[in-house]
Request: fold
Amino acid sequence: VAIIEAVPTRVLVAEDDHDVRSMLRLLLEDEAYDVVEAADGNEAWERFNGGTFDLVLIDLKLPGRHGFELCRLVRHASDVPIVIVTAQVDDFDVVAGLEAGADDYVTKPFTAKVLTARLRALLRRAQGAADPSGRMVFGSIEVSPREGEVRKDGEVVHLTRTEFRVLCDLAEHAGQVMSRDQLLQRVWGYDFPGDGRLVDAHIRRLRLKIEDDPADPRLLVTVRGLGYRFDRP
Amino acid sequence: VTATLRRGARLPLRLRVTATFALITLLLTLGLSLATYLAVRSYLVDSRERLGTRQAFLNARVAKSLLLGGESSPADIVGSLGSDSGSQVMLNVDDQWFASSVAIDPDQLPGDLLIAAAEGSAARQTLSVVGVPHLGLAVPMPAASAVYVEVVPLRELDRTLSTVATALLVGSGITVVAGSIAGWVASRRLLRPLDRMSNVAVAIAHGGFDQRLDDEGDADLEPLVSSFNEMVDALQGRIERETRFASEVSHELRTPLTALSTAVEVVRRRGDELPERMRPAIAVIDGQISYFERLVLDLLEISRLDAGVERASPEDVDLRVFVERLAEVLDTPKPTVSGSGPWDLQVDKRRLERVLANLVENADRHGGGVTAIALDRDHDHFRVAIEDRGPGIPPEDRERVFERFWRGVASRRSSNKGTGLGMTLVAQHLEMIDGEIRIEANDGGGTRIVVELPAPNGHGP
Reply:
């Protein structure tokens, strides 16, 4: 009999404020996470390269490397779920963070309950789709929920787990309109009403990856006032 | 210092410019017309008088020779002279009057005219006979001891003059209209820079701080344009500084609050490990930190709204689905829907959510919980009514609840106090989405708060 130890979830916390960082460590350790701290952008990038992580928490206003840049670097290097932590509530920060590749965001001050719920939802997503059904083929696009794989013209398309979940949800309901609120609830586990920009940013990213012409989407269609629809070609 | 552009109620600038142009042209053309009329009249009257005088002297000479010849009677003389000239000819021979017609009685002749003639000088005078101007001429004939009088009707002259006057008046009218049109056009041209300025000002008011005026090389406009642009520069700088400051304040407040609330959460979760005497203290810290957090967040939200940089971002919403879903999330009774749809409207969802969630929170905090949510509509409005158990808000306080930091008597004593900013935020968010709010009493002694939103035109029951 092999004794299996529970593998803790490793979180990289990039946060410049010492008190916030250490309190986050205590909070997340109580939730059984393994926490690695980084006090600035450069340190965070070094730590990220020095280990494997299941989650990355990035404060946007980081000294050294700015949060946006760190976010882009991490996203470029890996599909690890990224959560932005920001004290700025301006639209610009949230949108720019999502464009840089973040999966989700929380604004300071966050409640412990909200933060841990977000992280759990992200990890669930990262561990694969909820009900892996069969392979779906839409013209040149092939979605295999079981393998967690999407192919376009036979080539594997690199998607983050969140992007993958959004695509699967839409593909499983091909031809039906999914509202932003539905997607937020199903993919992000958000209460109502969530921030539709999360969905919009992910749809934009998905279009860049799977549409022939992202400016003239044929698969991921916007239905004005209602949401999005996956169209069979 | 307040610079007021309006002093009392004044006509609009364009109308004033037009009226000024019209008035100036009116005065000018009236003056000109009057002068023309007077000159024409004096010339015409003058030549008519000269003509009449020459005629009268000729006639008088004929009459004199005829009288002295003794072959014709005075009556025949006036008859023959009168029939040629169209004027009335009269002869006074030895104080006896002979006239070519009975149209004018010798008594109607002006006394001065006859006196002058009696004294031996020829005289001329205008007189009016039944409203028609006439020229009276008297030529004394001492040799025949007679006076020749001729009364020439001036009807033709009068008609000519009135034609001239009419032509001048019509001309003046046309000139005034033309002057007004010129004034209107000129004022339009003059106001064009103001129109442009107003467009730019509107664009700036809507957040387009990069907009500036261009003087287009016009030296007259340059001072106005440059001071306007300076003002916008100053405004832009100030707003940018304030926004930066607000964002820094926000950051500076949010970061320690995050550390505090996370720290207290860590302690709270291990409440069992705390010594008995420490637990109430931690509970107080926990409660106060979460109150402080709400207060800071509300204040930051209010200052963002006050700064006026926030804009509503409307999207299509099915109000019925929205309210039902929100009721589910906020754990209130299921909304009752009266009236038929459609319930579609364009609204900033997040603001509407803030409004309704705040009202539900208030009902929970001060009104014993939400007892009912009702949704209905008429042609122009959607209404969401939220009712609570009580104790209700007295009528005199229903306006005051929107004041900052106003709290009801019950709430001031409560340990679970709100920030006193919720209703202010509700009102401000509602203003941004064109909504209205009414506070009423309900039958159960509680409060009914009605939020009214404009329904899109073109459909409805």
User: Anything to note?
Assistant: The radius of gyration of chain A is 18 Å.
